[in-house]
## 1
Amino acid sequence: MRFKFTSEDEQFRQELRKFLVDNLPQGWTGPPDEADENDWALSLRMKRALAERGWLVMHWPREYGGQAASPMRNILFAEEMAYHRAPGNDRFGTRMIGPVLMHYGTEAQKSKYLPEIASGSVQWCQGYSEPDAGSDLASLKTSAVRRGEKFIVNGAKIWTTLAHRADMMFMLVRTNPNVPKHRGISMLLVDMKSPGVEVRPIINMSGSHSFNQVTFDDVEVPEENLVGDLDNGWRVGMSVLNYERSGVDYVGWGQRAWDELVALCRAETGAGGRRLADDHAVRRRMAELDAELDAARLLTYEVAWHQQQGEAPADVASMSKLAGTVANRNVLDYGLQLLGMYGPLEKGSPYAKLQGRFFKMRMFYTSGEILAGTTEIQKNLIAWRGLQLPRV
Amino acid sequence: MDFGLNETEEMVKAAAREFLSQQAGPDAARDSTSTAAFWSQVCEMGWPGLAIAEEYGGAEMGLTALGVLMEQWGAFLASGPLFESAVLAAPLLESHADEKLKREVLPQIADGSTSVTVAVIEESASWRPEDVRATAVRADDSWAITGKKHFVSYGNEADMIIIAARTGAGTEDISLFLVDRDAEGVTCEQLGHASGSPAAVLTLNEVTVPSSRLIGAENTGWGAVEQMLLHGAAFRAVQMAGLGRRVLEITTSYVKERKQFGVPVGSFQAIQHHLADMAVAVREVEHMARRAAWSLVEGSETIRKDVSRAKQAGSSLIPQVCWTAHQCHGAIGFTEEHDLHLYTRRAVSWAAEFGDASWHADRLADALEI
Ligand SMILES: Cc1cc2nc3c(=O)[nH]c(=O)nc-3n(C[C@H](O)[C@H](O)[C@H](O)COP(=O)(O)OP(=O)(O)OC[C@H]3O[C@@H](n4cnc5c(N)ncnc54)[C@H](O)[C@@H]3O)c2cc1C
């Protein structure tokens, strides 16, 4: 047993922190809004700067331009990035489609796409969900029909994060409607500039534009853009969820919010002129939240530890996502409680505290318990896969 | 014990639902251009005067009937200073103003020609008398008020404002004044508020108020504020109950419609348990909030406990009902286009108003003499 990062990892953390201070705008409090041109420019700049340092894909094998960094180092990186609310940690390219291509891609696909991802010069998005295929992803209907050397794609994807900024999409399509639903799915890579692709914004309830609806009207996709075997897309597509289902980002975000609250508690006085930080009830609740973040953090580290040994226990990944999203939400809820009447004052009001950020973050992170497999689905997985309870 | 509504209350409820389901609701809440027309209809129906005594031009239906109305007002996200005028200002004036002022103002509130809001709390956002810093200084037959008031709901729209100001050196030497909003020296700063309801900061710079607009006797204002705070907390809880019930209805019908894995998502026990939790919470808050309003009417000796229990429960349970509703909706409930967040924004904002959950828990602990 050893509950400590190596001194090399700690040294890396210091370098990364310095890098973030040097590269983020002064006083950056995020979170970035990808619809905002300035924030998007920052995101691109950060992505390239990370690539230059070799950090963008440090977890990749050396043959693809990575540093073969350990999963532990990688999780430390993700946590630190989230803590600093730093954009540019291109998860769709570096954590999802990149590893998928290494495993399932053709040589041509690898040599075409991996260097672009490693250099931070393309943006990918993930086209899985559809209006009628959310938790039941395998029921997806967007079709791809073989015509000569092409697939013709028709249908609609929804909730596609960053589609409005993406150059490429990796998507799941139905290539065989006549077999059980999991067996007729394939993965395709689609150029977002193809004729017939239309991206429409969906504004989320925190007021920003993060995801989209994407429709496909007779979109031609060259057959060499099929990833893995035809009709084997379910397995290919699910392999990204190993990366998606980690709570580490939420732990980083939650910890940052917790730190902001402690600073607030030290600065603000409550009834009777006493600092909030001296109020017994506040101290106790903040400590409980610290323990909750810590528990979630250990689960995310455990996932990395398993990966280090070449294992991928799905139930621990689900636990980590569950605990991370809940801890982050609980910190934000308590923040709103502490802010009281000031919580709902919006950014731009001269009286807003913490720039009205907590209310907006609370609204935004409601999505954490929905995306990448809802909390209910994660609990089902923990019960089914972890505890072998009977499936209904 | 009787958990049912009486005839008057049933009538108010039916009328409120019928009108508000057509004229208020999420679409109207998003459209700030329609509020003036809506408000004049509300006034035509006499709702601001629902609980005002007949002799002052009201319908004298009582506070529990007003509670039934406010439940629906909350459920349909209605806008306009009804809460401020009917729940906060009118009862305060009726109990504390002198006869002349009552005869002048209450009929105007009742017929809707005048709306009134209340400005007590300041930058500290606290409900303690020592945190009232605004001052009123007497000069002959008038007063000059100076100070700054925060979180004044409808501060930019109401015709008159009841202002709490310090008039003596003692902690509770506070007096209340009825001030015209367009009086000289009143400036109003509108703030962006996540609930979508207008809130303002009022700056008062030597605002001259005639002595006839002093409410009650000098230095006795704090007792009136305490009473008003009970009304505010009880009726916010009432609104939260109504809002929670509506969110439960919306979510129940959604999970019956939305299919995944070939069945309605409402057939999964995980979702059923969420809905069951919501249903329990809503019913509890409904009972507690209605009981608090009833205790106010009866002058029950458990008023303070009942109000604090209701607001404590409402503030902690109803936002949770909303968040659970989001969870049951999946991504569609995370969009700006879907109405759910309109309810959530109000519920979370209301949770903090007129004392939040922990403030009321502290008050309850005191009242229980633990
Ligand atoms: C901010 C955000 C970003 C997203 N980004 C992307 C993206 O980039 N690409 C992409 O493809 N998708 C994306 N998604 C979509 C996301 O993957 C889906 O929202 C998610 O899979 C849930 O599907 P749904 O929203 O249709 O909810 P539904 O599946 O309709 O679920 C509704 C409710 O039913 C419950 N439920 C469903 N099935 C079961 C069951 N078997 N047992 C118990 N409860 C169940 C759910 O937990 C939920 O509470 C994003 C979503 C969000 C909110």
## 2
Amino acid sequence: MPTGSMDLFDAIYTTRATRKLRHDLPVPDEDVYKILDAGIQAANGGNRQVWKFIVVRDPRIKRQLGDLYRELVNWVTSSNPNRKLDSGELYLGEHMAESPVIIVVCGISSGNEPPDEATAVGATMPAIENMLLAARALGYGGNISAVVRRRQDDLRRILGLGPNAYAATLLPIGVPQGSHGLKSRLPVEEVTYDDTWGNPTRLKRPASVWKPKLELLSEGDRKKGRG
Amino acid sequence: MAASRPEIGLFEAIYTARAIRKLRHDKPVSESDVRAIIEAGTQATNGANRQLWRFAVVRDPATKNRIGEWYRQAALRVLGPDDNPNPNHIANSGERYLQEHAGESPVIIFVVATPNYGQAVGEWKPVDAASAGYMCLPAVQNMLLAARGLGLGSNLTSAINMYEKEVKELLGIPDECKIVCMLPIGYPQGKHGPKTRKPVEEVTYSERWNQAPRF
Ligand SMILES: Cc1cc2nc3c(=O)[nH]c(=O)nc-3n(C[C@H](O)[C@H](O)[C@H](O)COP(=O)(O)O)c2cc1C
Ligand SMILES: Cc1cc2nc3c(=O)[nH]c(=O)nc-3n(C[C@H](O)[C@H](O)[C@H](O)COP(=O)(O)O)c2cc1C
Ligand SMILES: Cc1cc2nc3c(=O)[nH]c(=O)nc-3n(C[C@H](O)[C@H](O)[C@H](O)COP(=O)(O)O)c2cc1C
């Protein structure tokens, strides 16, 4: 088990989608291993562990994945006129290939056919969350880039996927260009009901609720007076 | 930082948050812990930050009883009865225990995906119920870790979905929503601890499928 790690709740509150990665700073194999080992600890149906991971560092393969991802970002931009992509989302569209490492997370079946989309993505999501948290604790950032799953045939060709595999997402990992930090979320009170649907929760924001330590905050978060 | 809570490192939580199915029925779970677990859930990555999740906290004994009975039927269908067990899913004692005692859990949190909420946001296309469901699973993993961090045990329990229609009716959950799972929560009868997993080397390839990893 990696030691000297950060506090659990600090990690949960300050892991955010990190799309702008430093291309000049490496992610050593040892850290990739720690991230994967955290991933496979996740809850999974019947402990069948129907997941496989491909660690991509080869620039040629990264370029092919990057080209594919860019096409999908462009396609999303043109097919969802109401949804303006933010600068991070657009940046990743251009720079996926330059990520120090891309972990491809796959769902597998016990047969000879790939699992369907919902099964493969669902089976790997808890592991992916653990991986993002572990990356954060080790000083890295990453982002689920799952739109790419729509081009399964291309992924199959680029990665030589086995017949029983479905590539659920790319997970680019690297040192963030910016900082880790807080996220914007609806408060618990707005998303929780007691006993029956629509019945407001009696849960109250307790005095002991998690508060960020100052050093965990980015410049921007500090300016906004958060925490 | 919660004053009343000992700090726990992220990795310790990740490695020791195993499925806890045998819960103490005599020791209550505080409201502030339930809230902390849900808030940890809401911090998870999720599709386009649409936050399609809703959480229903069930403490009412009569409601828990009905749910417990449905879970018993569901688990029996998966695991088979004691005298004719399912050869493809050999039940461990925890699974059998939960089969009988889910209704006695101090708290049960239902994680519910609300596909229509995405429509209201009007950014992305509305997601169907299945995708809304998997978009809530990172939140569930955070909740399992948070429970561990607070000394509580829990388990991702989705077999209850065999009775999804009945549960929705009982709790008044709208038709278009999808129940992701239920999380029975309480103090563990036993201990948190390590899990059985295939090692990383067996589930990882380098560069392309079937190429052995470097580590
Ligand atoms: C989608 C999903 C559904 C699950 N449903 C059930 C369930 O209905 N009943 C149950 O006892 N465990 C259920 N589990 C828990 C798994 O069996 C458990 O995560 C797995 O055995 C690993 O346990 P461990 O972390 O203690 O090794 C479910 C897990 C997942 C991911
Ligand atoms: C299933 C799924 C698919 C996603 N696909 C993409 C993607 O293709 N590209 C991308 O930039 N972000 C993707 N994301 C990341 C989300 O947009 C991101 O987690 C969300 O905006 C919340 O960010 P925050 O945690 O920093 O607040 C995906 C997330 C999920 C859960
Ligand atoms: C930058 C970016 C961010 C995205 N974020 C998400 C996301 O958070 N969740 C998600 O399901 N899909 C995400 N997508 C994918 C699109 O939502 C989705 O795949 C696309 O709109 C097509 O819709 P469909 O796959 O439902 O047909 C993202 C795509 C891009 C390019």
